[in-house]
Amino acid sequence: MFVLSRVLFCGGVMVPERTSLTVCQFSVVHRLTSPRKNSPYSSVDSERYSSLVKSVMSSRISSQTPESLQAEDDQVYGPVVKAQMPSRNEPRVPKILYSLLNSERAIETEDPETGPPTRIMLNRGQGRPFVPSVTRILQQTLSPEQSFYLERWKRRMIAELGEEGFKAYSQNLFKQGKDFHAALEGILTSAETWKSGNLLETSEFPPEVQGYVQSISHVLEDVRAVRAIESTVQHSALNYLGIVDCVARYKGVLCVIDWKTSEKPKPFLSNTYDNPLQIAAYAGALNSDDNYKYQVENGLIVVAYKDGTPAHAHQVNAELMSEYWKTWLLRLEDFREPRSSASSSPSPEK
DNA sequence: GGATCCTTCTTCTTCTTC
After folding, report:
1. Tell me, what is one Gene Ontology molecular-function annotation carried by this entry (predicted)?
2. pLDDT beyond 60 at A61
3. Using the CB atom, is residue A177 less than 7 Å from strand B?
């Protein structure tokens, strides 16, 4: 590559390295795919130039040495500044690797005949010890990068909409999410309305959620055996709680399901930020909670769109779930013992 | 009745060219 750049330069053509690489690759491919007879050298009078070729090829000492090339580089580009390599720390491991699964519970392959979905209301009565929630823990343990981008986004939005405008915008986003969840509760509770054969009649829903319901209709076709809806789960040992959106079978697999609304498309799981951690946290809590007799090791994040565009359904299989569970345990550790690194977050632009 | 809780969302470089 290095030499090629020079050759191109010496030929009087300044070509950026990346471009010259492409040229190089192209020429190699071209040479390999083209018949030899088309070689531009085939018409060269080799007899005439044989002495020149011999003299070049027989030269024992190249005019260019690594040292001369280095000196030339230093003159043209300046001294090499080596980038600071990121420190290769060992990946963090939770201090206590608490299990996601409950060894006393079997993984069900078939569903027992059950009544309506479980729905355990949150009960934070007076005198009960405070138990932090999944949302609170995730919010308070955001990485410096996450905090930075969120804060920057907020500043930009306020600059555009004003304080009051931004407040109204945020409230509207929350309202859409809440309305969508309310509609889903109705759909999932009255199972007959969406079981196979019965198409969802979106016009039955309030206009503001019709698009979202349309968006998830293809996902609902694969949802069966709803076991829990908007139900509180609390981890018996790790002492945190949350409210799980839904537990049901998706394509035959028992899952913790999280329904989301989004303005932006989220075609990849990585677009959902901490959502996978959220469902891992719920799954672990449910698996240890005595109010539930089964356990879940898979998850599903469904991102619905207001304009009715088909929702993205991101499956989190058991293997992925156990990875997210470990990360969740780290966030839980950070929540209980905040680390000083969080204070080193860069400040957003003004 | 009022206060609080959980959840509802929000982030990922940026520009040019075709």
Report:
1. single-stranded DNA exodeoxyribonuclease activity
2. no
3. yes
